[in-house]
Inverse folding.
């Protein structure tokens, strides 16, 4: 039986089972592609994980590398505000503990709250940088238009291809 399997040739519709000592012919895949595919995605200046790591380390850095200056500036501003308030509340807590103030527990809670804001800012900056790098080449055009009644509205511009008109024979 084993001898019959070794010498039998596979049928056309079957996928041959590789047997020891018997090599399968391989198709040549080293030739050039026959169909040229245009590039459909433009890579971001940095990889998404790299942008996220930069913004986790220093909020706004990943956004600056991705040319999102306003967003990066907002993260830097919020980082500075939270850091300033943490230092201020910490100094006030030291003073309250030195004077045995009854409000020291409340001030300790305030210091912890500002520390949470700092950590949250780092996490949000990292997440925003990652998403911005992933959506680097997404066409986003916001336009401000006047709406009925004198109001202003902002919305994205979305493009789609119209089907070609049917031609009669």
């Amino acid at each position: 039986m084993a001898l019959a399997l070794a010498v039998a040739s596979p049928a056309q519709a079957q996928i041959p089972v590789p047997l020891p000592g018997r090599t399968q012919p391989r198709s040549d895949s080293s030739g050039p592609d026959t169909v040229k595919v245009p590039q459909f995605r433009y890579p971001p200046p940095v990889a998404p994980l790299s942008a996220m790591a930069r913004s986790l380390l220093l909020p706004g850095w990943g956004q600056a590398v991705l040319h999102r200056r306003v967003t990066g500036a907002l993260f830097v501003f919020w980082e500075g505000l939270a850091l300033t308030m943490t230092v201020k509340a910490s100094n006030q807590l030291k003073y309250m503990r030195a004077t045995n103030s009854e409000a020291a527990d409340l001030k300790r809670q305030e210091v912890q709250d500002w520390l949470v804001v700092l950590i949250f800012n780092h996490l949000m900056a990292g997440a925003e940088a990652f998403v911005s790098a992933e959506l680097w080449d997404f066409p986003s055009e916001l336009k401000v238009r006047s709406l009925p009644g004198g109001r202003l509205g902002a919305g994205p511009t979305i493009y789609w291809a119209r089907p070609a008109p049917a031609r009669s024979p």
Observations:
- The chain has five helices and two strands.
- The chain has a mean pLDDT of 83.
